[in-house]
């Protein structure tokens, strides 16, 4: 799936959608978020967690790195 963030506004993705896009389990995604190896969700509410599609796309393209850890949720 091509997530071209320049031609459309950011889409918000659920953990299920993120896991499917990267081809790993939900627990794999959460473990990498915890360790700073995967982008943190942009929205974390009481019953809702969402990633920006552009963050996931950058990760998949190898353009996301530990320098973005400051934007993560603890």
Description:
- This protein has one domain (12-63): Multidrug-efflux Transporter Regulator, Chain: A, Domain 2.
- The chain has a three-stranded antiparallel β-sheet.
- The N and C termini lie far apart (29 Å).
- It has helices at residues 15-22, 26-34, 53-60; strands spanning 12-13, 43-44, 49-52.
- Mean pLDDT is 83; it is low at 69-74.
- It is 34% helix and 11% strand.
- It is α+β, with helices and mostly antiparallel strands and 74 residues long.
Topology, number of strands: 3
- Which descriptor suits the 3D outline? globular
Number of helices: 3
The low-confidence parts are 69-74
SSE order: EHHEEH
For the sheet with most strands, the description reads: 3 strands, antiparallel
Arithmetic mean of pLDDT: 83
- How many separate domains? 1
- If you consult CATH, what is the topology? Multidrug-efflux Transporter Regulator, Chain: A, Domain 2
Oligomer, anyone? single chain
| Structural category | alpha+beta
The helicity comes to 25-40%
CATH class: Mainly Alpha
Task: Spell out the blueprint of helices and strands.
Layout: E1 12-13, H1 15-22, H2 26-34, E2 43-44, E3 49-52, H3 53-60
Antiparallel strand pairs: 1-3, 2-3
Question: Top keywords for this entry?
Answer:
Multidrug-efflux Transporter Regulator, Chain: A, Domain 2; single chain; 74 residues; alpha+beta; disordered C terminus; 3-stranded antiparallel sheet; 3 helices; globular
Brief sketch in words of this structure:
With 74 residues, this protein is of the alpha+beta class. The chain has a single domain, classed as Orthogonal Bundle (Multidrug-efflux Transporter Regulator, Chain: A, Domain 2).
